[in-house]
Design brief:
single chain, alpha/beta, seven-stranded mixed beta sheet, 12 helices, 45% helix, 13% strand
């Protein structure tokens, strides 16, 4: 019943969102309607596809909206972002794309004036920078070609993210090692398959109940020629001591380096920490989020309890089926992104570079 009430509320928000865009051209409204329906029906089956669909939506909005300056375009994007995420507050990867585009516009509008004094070195020169201002009067003709190029670069980055991450696999997987993974991730699958071209190793896959995504992952890896063992989730702590490295994907990465990961990942991370086994996370930069887990919008959504246990089992039994686990940064050893690899303590620096100009903290949190 709770799930049906929540589904009805989301549908009502979708209708309100679409009615608020009536001042925009029909093409954008149709694109928005299609995008929201695909998210609602879970037709976008990967974060990359969600990111690409988000870029197409923004591109349509920029092309069809009436704006003459960078300031007017920023206002349009911020208004649409606010309306959109009142409907889909849990879709952090969509929000990441919007914030990244807003940051690009601000970067192009920034003019830095330095004081009239010589630089002693690059570090001290940065300390002496002042009078940071934004030229939000940048015209439509000046900004539009810049935005077209920037959006094209984001699309190229998203399309090549999985292959870029997979190409780093041989640096982290060695001959005759035992690798453990959990959760259905196209990125991790590609990572392991690429390593198998040059290394011989064994992969252990947790089945990841109640949806048993691990069965499909194990099948895909076995078909690619890897040596695979599928285990139940209850056997993780028993098996983990024989593992060399744990490699997982994630749904999103919070600003403190924590994970919004597949259900059951927290238990796996605790077991790996107990046995001093390194845990590596493979993810595209798209999944870096400027939000913290403490934000109430980031609390796990409860999925239908019937997926775990039939409600006919006992009328007074409460069954919880959270949509994700939060994994704190102290349980993670390394992040492998499509352009770099880093420790959890460096994630905040990457987020600042991607989503905000220095001194613009209010736009982040």
């Amino acid at each position: 019943m709770k799930f049906m009430i929540k589904f009805t509320l989301i549908t009502q928000k979708f209708s309100t969102m679409l009615s608020n865009t009536r001042t925009l051209k029909t093409d954008y409204r149709q694109e928005l309607r299609s995008f929201l329906n695909e998210l609602k029906n879970r037709e976008l089956n990967s974060s990359i596809n969600i990111g690409l669909a988000s870029v197409r939506l923004i591109k349509k909005l920029i092309g069809e909206s009436k704006w003459t300056t960078a300031g007017e375009l920023l206002e349009i994007l911020k208004k649409e972002e606010k309306n959109l995420f009142e409907c889909i507050p849990t879709e952090t990867n969509v929000r990441n794309v919007w914030k990244r585009v807003i940051k690009i516009i601000k970067d192009e509008s920034v003019v830095i004036e330095q004081r009239n004094q010589s630089k002693i070195d690059s570090l001290q020169g940065n300390l002496f920078q002042s009078n940071i201002c934004q030229n939000l009067a940048l015209s439509h003709n000046e900004l539009k070609p810049i935005m077209i190029e920037a959006l094209s670069e984001i699309i190229l980055e998203l399309e090549s993210a999985v292959s870029s991450i997979a190409s780093q696999s041989v640096e982290h997987i060695h001959e005759n090692e035992v690798i453990f993974t959990m959760g259905k991730s196209q990125t991790v699958e590609a990572f392991l398959k690429n390593a198998a071209r040059k290394r011989k190793f064994h992969v252990i896959v947790a089945e990841n109940a109640p949806y048993l995504d691990g069965h499909q992952v194990a099948s895909n890896l076995q078909k690619a020629g890897l040596d695979v063992t599928l285990i139940t989730d209850s056997a993780i702590f028993t098996i983990i001591s024989r593992v060399n490295t744990v490699i997982i994907g994630t749904k999103s990465i919070f600003a403190n380096g924590g994970l919004k990961a597949y259900t059951g990942t927290h238990s796996l991370a605790l077991a790996a920490k107990h046995h001093n086994i390194p845990l590596i996370v493979c993810a595209s930069l798209l999944k870096l989020s400027p939000e913290y887990f403490a934000n109430t919008n980031n609390l796990p959504e409860l999925l239908p309890c019937d997926d775990v246990l039939s409600t006919d089992f006992h009328p007074n039994l409460t069954v919880l089926n959270p949509s994700f686990d939060y994994v704190p940064p102290e349980l993670i050893n390394l992040f492998i992104f499509n352009t770099t690899k880093t420790a959890p303590s460096y994630v905040y620096r990457l987020i600042r570079e991607m989503y905000a100009i220095e001194g613009d903290e209010d736009e982040l949190f």
